[in-house]
Amino acid sequence: MKLVQEQRTEINGQPIIAFTLANDHGMEITCLNYGCIITSILVPDKNGNVENVVLAFDDFSSYFTNYPYLGAVIGRVAGRIKDSCFNLNGKTYKLHANENKNHLHGGKKGFHHVIWQAEAFSQSEEVGVRFLRRSVDGEEGYPGNVDVQVTYTLNNQNEFIISYHATSDQDTPLTLTNHTYFNLSGNVKRDILQHELKIKSDRFLPLDHEFLPTGEIKDVAGTLFDLRQGKVLKEVIDSTDPQIVLVGQGYDHPFVLNAHHDEEIVLCDRESGRTLIVETDEPAVVVYTGNQLPNEETINGVPSRKYLGICLETQAFPNALHHSHFPSCILRAGKVYSSTTKYTFRLAHE
Ligand code: FUC
Q1: Ligand 1 shell residues, CB under 6 Å
Q2: Given strand 126-135, what is the order of strands in its sheet?
Q3: Is position 126 annotated as part of the catalytic site?
Q4: In the chain, which stretches have pLDDT less than 50?
Q5: What is the whole-number distance in angstroms between the Cα of residue 293 and the centre of ligand 1?
Q6: pTM, 2 dp
Q7: What does pLDDT average to over the chain?
Q8: Are 19 and 31 within 8 A, CB to CB?
Q9: β-strands 203-204, 252-256: how paired?
Q10: Is the torsion defined by CA of 190, 264, 79, 151 positive or negative?
């Protein structure tokens, strides 16, 4: 196991550090103390070629705007909150509106746009970084001082584990995720259209024209949202299903997970042989096929475009604050928010 730290730049005198975690099987992960952003995950293909399987900007300064939220941790609340407001304990809270009237992915200066304190650790079978910060009372309009820890750990089983931990001194909504775009072809040789996605999910959340859940929790049977046997993404993206058309030809949808820590999300690229298994204790995964990736950036040496990567955002149901029949995303004062998502890389024949 190996751990390397290197300063990339600085903001107002504060260093932006890249941490590279490497295991004994050629797997390597690079992440920043800025937004806990993952800039690279190097994984061997079936021929032993070690290549990057996540999207990263070529121009480092693009991370300081980062419209697509590449690689970042999202908080306090992942996803959209209708009308940028919510009621809690008899009080109305107004949040920063950063997508028309709505609040998206934590607001203007969400967790993806701040420098985190970082502590690297290294043991015989695992290496990692623990990121810490206090999100102060009133940040982006949210109540309470929240102490957050996000820990990235790589081990010798080719498992990359993200564990989230938070406590607050007031009740506050909180659901954290990571917004990495995966592309298992390696160094973005192809887009994700031939990737196969399999999810243990019987129900999904249809969206309205603002990409907010309508409130319906719909059976996937007989729809393009039935991923229980797996589907090649091209089949979905080419379809005329109104939900697929609505979000710009693809998925941008929450799937309710039936299973936890049981190979519930599997993404596979047959040509490279790379398979990613995502396992979590979160109630849902938002699958986003990069339908709105901007054209003006350069990502891994190629001009950015639609379908270059897929996000698998494990989290609470989006807009849960406005749907009382969705599981609550409120962290109570003095209680602990704790959640783990594990990403395991395998080769298809294994
Ligand atoms: C995803 C989507 C959004 C958005 C963003 C960049 O999580 O839900 O629609 O475009 O990321």
Answers
A1: 68-69, 211, 252, 286, 288, 292, 311, 313
A2: 117-122, 126-135, 146-155, 159-168, 336-347, 274-280, 265-269, 196-199, 231-232
A3: no
A4: none
A5: 9
A6: 0.97
A7: 97
A8: yes
A9: antiparallel
A10: negative
Q: Which candidate, 117, 83, 112, places its Cα nearest to that of 313?
A: 112
Indicate which residue of 105, 112, 113, 179 is catalytic. Answer: 179
**CB-based burial label for 134 (10 Å; 0-12, 13-18, 19+):** exposed
Instruction: Please give the distance, rounded to the nearest whole angstrom, from the Cα atom of residue 288 to the centre of ligand 1.
Output: 7
> Which amino acid residue places its CA nearest to atom 10 of ligand 1?
292
- Among protein residues, the one with the nearest Cα to ligand 1's atom 9 is 252
Length of the chain: 350
pLDDT reported for residue 350: 52
* Residue that has been written with the tokens 């109540």 in this structure: 143
Question: What's the pLDDT at 206?
Answer: 98
So what's the pLDDT on residue 294?
A: 87
Which candidate in 28, 51, 264, 313 is catalytic?
Answer: 313
Place of tokens 């607001």: 107
Q: Which of 66, 98, 104 to mutate to test the pocket of ligand 1 (most atoms within 8 A of CB)?
A: 104
Q: How high is the pLDDT of residue 1?
A: 94
pLDDT for position 349: 65
Contact in structure between 182 and 40 (CB atoms under 8 Å) = no
Closest CA to 207 of 241, 238, 256, 247: 247
Q: Are 76 and 209 in contact (CB under 8 A)?
A: no
Q: Which atom of ligand 1 is nearest to the CA of 313?
A: 7
3-state SS assignment for residue 134:
strand
In the reported structure, the alpha carbon of residue 213 is separated from the centroid of ligand 1 by a whole-number distance in angstroms of 13
Is 96 among the catalytic positions?
no
The residue whose CA is least distant from atom 8 of ligand 1 is 252
Would you say 175 and 316 are in contact if contact means Cβ atoms under 8 Å apart? yes
Q: In terms of Cα–Cα distance, which of 224, 227, 239 is closest to 202? A: 227
* Residue 173 dihedral angles phi and psi, to the nearest 5°: -75, 145
